[in-house]
Amino acid sequence: MQIPRDPVKIGLAITGASGILYGLRVLEELARRQVIVHLTISANAKHIARLELGLDIDLETGRIEGLDNPLYEWIIYHHYTHVGAAPASGSYGMQAVAVVPCSMGTLGRIATGTSESLVGRMADVAMKERRPLILVPRETPYNTIHLQNMLTLSQAGVTILPASPGFYHHPRSIRELTDFIVSRVLQHLGFDGGCLVKGGWGEIDSISTQTHLQSGDDYA
Ligand SMILES: Cc1cc2nc3c(=O)[nH]c(=O)nc-3n(C[C@H](O)[C@H](O)[C@H](O)COP(=O)(O)O)c2cc1C
């Protein structure tokens, strides 16, 4: 494979909130679009991936069980402790950074600028370089500190994109539900994500909505 001379570079951090599948699907979709993904994964994300998906992530090599081999050509993996890695520098020229999912711990650290791991540093750099930073928090309910941290980040230009999927596209699987959020993340990173969600907002008509509401038992 010939990597273009000036490929698009996106930073992606997967951290230890529930919903690791969101992060893995964003990774897959970016790599499929032949985008260079600078990937880092927190230790807690590894534990949660094992717990909720039953899959192994090797934090030394970045190998993710089940990920298609050809996609690795587009992934540059960095250990989360490696704060000297290329994407930790503003001059490296990353187009955008996403943290998917983003634990409230990581979100709090980003809001206070502690930057002690590569996850925080990539986010910090995106903010200081005025590049898009998208955080996908997953927690419920939010406490006042969470809300204050999100407000601080939003005021700093960060996109807070909670893992709150819609249901109006009539998802029939966890994958379809997940891809609602994945498509929004892709769009905010500057890519077309619409193709992942069939029957989205623009395709709703009142009759089909009514039918689905009446046959709500299907969802039980
Ligand atoms: C099974 C499990 C599920 C968790 N789910 C969440 C969650 O949805 N949101 C969250 O903010 N933290 C969650 N946590 C807590 C975080 O993993 C914890 O705060 C951790 O320190 C985050 O570390 P990281 O941000 O470095 O990945 C969960 C922990 C476990 C063990």
Task: Supply the key terms.
single chain, 220 residues, alpha/beta, Rossmann fold, 13% strand, globular, binds flavin mononucleotide
Report the major sheet. Answer: 6 strands, parallel
Rg from alpha-carbon coordinates = 18 Å
| CATH fold descriptor | Rossmann fold
> CATH superfamily assignment?
Flavin prenyltransferase-like
Placed side by side, the strands forming the largest sheet appear as 3-2-1-4-5-6
Instruction: Catalogue the ligands.
Output: flavin mononucleotide
How many beta-strand segments? Answer: 6
> Any idea what the shape is?
globular
Highest-level CATH class: Alpha Beta
Low-confidence stretches: none
Q: What share of residues are in beta strands?
A: 5-15%
Query: How many separate helices?
Result: 7
Please indicate the count of domains: 1
Order of helices and strands: EHEHEEHHEHEHH
Helical/strand content category: alpha/beta
- pLDDT averaged residue by residue: 91
CA distance, first residue to last residue? 46 Å
Helix content: 25-40%
At CATH level 2, the architecture is 3-Layer(aba) Sandwich
Describe the structure.
The chain contains 7 helices and 6 strands, in the order βαβαββααβαβαα. With 220 residues, the protein is of the alpha/beta class. The protein has a single domain, classed as 3-Layer(aba) Sandwich (Rossmann fold). A 6-stranded parallel beta sheet has the order 3-2-1-4-5-6, sandwiched between helices. α1 links the parallel β1 and β2. α1 crosses α6 and α3 crosses α5. The radius of gyration is 18 Å and the shape is globular. The model has no long low-confidence stretch (mean pLDDT 91).
